[in-house]
Design a protein that fits this description.
Blueprint (H helix, E strand, L loop, with lengths): L4 E6 L1 H4 L1 E4 L4 E4 L3 H11 L2 E4 L7 H13 L6 E5 L9 H6 L11 H17 L3 E5 L6 H8 L5 H8 L4 H20 L3 E2 L3 H4 L17 H20 L1
Parallel strand pairs: 1-4, 1-5, 5-6, 6-7
Antiparallel strand pairs: 2-3
Helix pairs in contact: 2-10, 3-5, 5-8
């Protein structure tokens, strides 16, 4: 399948955010080399519309606005689920006996994703979905529990590894959506899970890839693109 333009819609993972230890702040990893490779070897221009903190519903609005503004591409890569699976941890800590829902419950997540796919196809754009990179539950807990009641959070969670499992459920849902809708899928999860040095490929916050992790992710994206567009 040949194309000349592609767009990326996603969250901070596709934006390239990572925690920089020396500056103690988030920076954006430079994926220019991979983008240039796609342009030079496949003739594909890639525009990245990803936003920090985006959920699938925010992504749906972003895509609708981009289409209204004249979005011109043949392929759209979609990467959502990480923020959707997250909780309002301050609210959980304040009321550990209460009933708390993730930012986007799975049924809403699926419905919004399917609407995006239908909308893009209606404009002649091929959607390509992405599974979610794995996270480190314990690192993430240490990160988000700072300044909160850690014992209350542990009481509600019962098992810290449930953070990982809950995020994994959203990645599996993305795979199910791709299969049901007949969309190509870029598997960003398995290549990282198979690495024995996975801890080195994640940041201190436990949820963003490190620069080394981003290299693995973009190598996988590049490999997919070569197979997809040269088929």
């Amino acid at each position: 399948m040949k194309t000349s333009k592609a767009a990326i819609f996603g969250d901070s993972i596709m934006r390239g955010a990572y925690w920089h230890e020396e500056s103690q702040g988030y920076k954006i990893w430079n994926n220019t080399r991979y983008i240039q490779n796609l342009a030079e070897h496949l003739g594909v221009d890639v525009v990245n519309y990803s936003q920090m903190g985006a959920t699938v519903e925010r992504g749906e609005t972003k895509i609708d606005n981009a289409l209204a503004a004249g979005l011109d591409c043949q392929t759209a890569f979609l990467e959502y689920g990480g923020n959707d699976s997250d909780f309002d941890w301050a609210a959980v800590a304040a009321d550990p006996r209460g009933s708390h829902q993730p930012r986007t419950a799975l049924p809403r997540f699926r419905q919004s994703y399917l609407r995006i796919i239908e909308t893009l196809r209606g404009r002649g754009i091929q959607p390509v979905l992405m599974s979610l990179p794995p996270i480190d539950s314990r690192r993430y807990f240490q990160w988000f529990s700072q300044g909160l009641d850690g014992e209350a959070l542990r009481s509600w969670l019962e098992d810290l590894d449930s953070i990982y499992r809950h995020q994994e459920a959203y990645s599996l849902e993305v795979e199910r959506i791709a299969a049901a809708a007949g969309c190509p899928l870029v598997d960003l999860r398995l290549p990282l899970l198979l690495r024995r040095d996975l801890p080195r490929l994640l940041c201190t916050d436990g949820i963003h890839p490190s620069p080394e992790g981003y290299h693995v992710i973009w190598q996988e994206i590049e490999k997919f693109c070569y197979d997809f567009w040269q088929a």
